[in-house]
Amino acid sequence: MTFTGAIGAICGFPLRGIIRLSVKLGIHPNWLTLFGVLVNVIAAYLLGNAQFRWAGVLMILANIFDYIDGKVARERGLETPFGGFWDSVMDRFSDITLFIGLIYLYAHMMRVDYVIICALAMMFSVMTSYTRARAESIIEKCKVGFMERPERIVLFMIGAFTNRMAAVLWVILVLSIVTVADRIYFTWRETTHARRVEDLLRARLVKGA
Amino acid sequence: MKRLFTLPALVLWRAFFWTYERATWQYDLYVVAILAFVWLVPPAWLGDPLERGPGLIGWILGKLR
Fold first, then answer.
1. Three-state DSSP class for residue B37
2. What is the ipTM of this complex?
3. Residue A129, helix vs strand vs coil
4. Most B CBs within 10 Å: which of A53, A162, A188, A201, as the mutation test of the B interface?
């Protein structure tokens, strides 16, 4: 098992208990999604006030709700197309809210450079989701690129708990730009049937051997 | 000679054009590289507005000076 796989398995254990409890209590998954967003709004407020540790705690709570809503829907047989749409829209609200909290913080500190970095990171985070959603309306699947929402959220938490938010923002920004580029390239390749760069490189490698 | 440049180019391309799943060794490697950047690079190098502590690289450089 890989290092990240082991962490996932360890975290998955208590989450299964929370899912079972939510199913038992009969909470509708759409309410869990909404509750997650509201908790993220409070986390963003705390980020805006430089209370990173408490913001991190609330981000964990918010993302527990975000993680379990789909699973609860599946267990209760409440999976609907609207539920998927609602979850996806609320995720964007949560993402943007956290970035706005940081933009407020850096604006308050008169740090225009980090306001711009935050704004760009926010833009490319939204574009990461948009490019995939738009691509999957014309091709079957567009799941390429590293920086997806779970990675972004875990990075936010790491930044909050270890007070390394500046470094985290740089990572989110750079890898979100790369992810958007990956998705544009992948969609272009799939729709134009262009040759894959790696095939060209592999062919060169074989020829050179 | 061609192979000498093509292999790193292929590795770089695979790192840029990411198609690996989560919980693979490639994913682990990426995560380690990201965490190393986040935790080891001195916040002052990035002009961190909430800079606290020099980070591991900054601490080592401080000791070496």
1. helix
2. 0.87
3. helix
4. A201
